[in-house]
Amino acid sequence: MKLNEFQNILEKKNCDFAVFYTADSSRINPNLFYFTGYSGIGILVVPKKHRPFLIAPQMEFQRAKKSSIKKVYSMEKKRFFESAHSIIKKNSIKTKNIAIDKNNFTLNSYKHFKRQFKKSKTKDIALECLKLRGRKTEKEVQILRKSCNYADNILQKTIKNFESFKTESEVSAFLEYETKKLGLELSFNPIIASGSNGSMPHYEPKNIKIKNGFCVIDFGVKYKGYCSDITRTIYIGKPSQKERGIYNLLLGIQEDSIKMVKNNIKCSGIYDFVCNKLGKYKNNFTHGLGHGVGIEIHEMPNLTLNSTDRIKDNMVFTIEPGVYFPNKFGIRIEDTILFKGRVKVLTRTSKHLLIV
Amino acid sequence: MKLNEFQNILEKKNCDFAVFYTADSSRINPNLFYFTGYSGIGILVVPKKHRPFLIAPQMEFQRAKKSSIKKVYSMEKKRFFESAHSIIKKNSIKTKNIAIDKNNFTLNSYKHFKRQFKKSKTKDIALECLKLRGRKTEKEVQILRKSCNYADNILQKTIKNFESFKTESEVSAFLEYETKKLGLELSFNPIIASGSNGSMPHYEPKNIKIKNGFCVIDFGVKYKGYCSDITRTIYIGKPSQKERGIYNLLLGIQEDSIKMVKNNIKCSGIYDFVCNKLGKYKNNFTHGLGHGVGIEIHEMPNLTLNSTDRIKDNMVFTIEPGVYFPNKFGIRIEDTILFKGRVKVLTRTSKHLLIV
Fold it and tell me: Could you report the predicted ipTM of this complex, rounded to two decimals?
């Protein structure tokens, strides 16, 4: 995606090329994937003017050849950056100023990199990449819509079957099975947090009986490498009037904050709105209001207290207020949203309190 | 694990404390988890003499309190290292020499870190941590045994049901469902590579009909945070004499290389042995022979051409020779092994060529 636009940025920043790497098959480099569609081990070099190329180890060569990058080299040297250096030299690319993504570059990789590019200056390109990826292309919007559709369908099937599950793990396993069966990946390990476990926003489901009370289900799939993200909180048993009241308060706030979204609005402003509306429950809201969604499950924009981001066309992000009462319960309601002239909610599963 | 041993290392390296962080809930910091059992967002500070402590954001505070670290602080400042700096100062801990893990520290995190610890010197502790984790404690060995048992059972159940699967994705979904149902995690996304897809060692299963011929199944679970890793290659249809021949050659080599393992043997020596035995197929073996297994799926020791590692007591690692014929097929046979005076194969699923 947006390779030309990125090369213009390199030109403006006076960088001869940018380099991205993934050394570990279990950790996708989001920018490398963004520019190539390749999720394996390797190095991507994007010169400011010439065609970009990939360097992949022999074992990954066939996969790399299937990426959107036409020029693929097999890693010839023992070390990643040694190979990169030799191929860059062969291609007569200058090495005076090199753009690197300092969010995805470890200190030890940098040491190896500097051994090869001793005299080069490096410039951080992390923010520029995040910004590029923050505003989706039409193709990405299509993929994200579909990713959200899949998440909706799987979540609804799971909720419909809810009475057949005994443990939190069974719910998680079912979500995952339905995801994998369709050839999709999870965006993240699903959160199934029943009863008092729901008070931990990042709780990991356990092989324990589902507790009565609220049950937070936070789930998303990856379709063609793009994440969706949705949370619904259902109720096992019979909610009290007070519990219903808190749920409906949160739901109203979630819906109102979605309605607030407009072009150029400050993300921190939407966050503030939610805090104010929560009134006495303000301190029970212990995380950000939302985050961009794309190749990574957390990307730009950030809808948090201190964010300086603003909503722009073609941003896809979550709105997910929650309230947590330690050792008691938690409630979170989350949708993935597209802004494009107006707000479009991409996750469509009902938000009425479902009682099982 | 091994916190005292680690504090002795800090003493020897003349470091006042070590600091580990995780900023992203989807990426476990293996050392932070090793020392704490905590897998969430936060910072771990291990002073060379005093009690270690965790700093966690408010939303993760309850989870952090359940870790093995008794002293847990709630993050009070906006930025991670700002909080860490203020708490370290309050605890009157010197900040002259700080140990950091440069394999798990990005350039941008380092920038934020240095803003707080301007005058401090940093020393890399990555290798020391890998070495500590490379030799498992009794407790870890127990957990790894169990992790391998689970992987065996789930894999065997999957193979038994193999005829009911139509697509690669269905096999992957079944493996994952059985894993999650037991409250376990995957070590990595399973590889189900049928027919010509098997020639890509890191192939990702697709929602396509399972092809005839060899089918590589590479799978592992995480039990209590510890990985297992096993690969079996089965055959769909009727193998030719030549195919049987290659399979049995590889199997013989895999078994012989396991028998070779003894105390203090060079890992590169075992790799060389396999290459020699492969004869004319040597160039079809395109990856390392094995890797340590623990909290991470790839850790010390490395069984590769250039490795300087040697096998020591209480190491747990894989032996996984493979041969790959581009656009034709691939075969890999992998076990997770414990060395403790003698070799013990922890993954016990049959390696006779199974024909479906």
Answer: 0.87
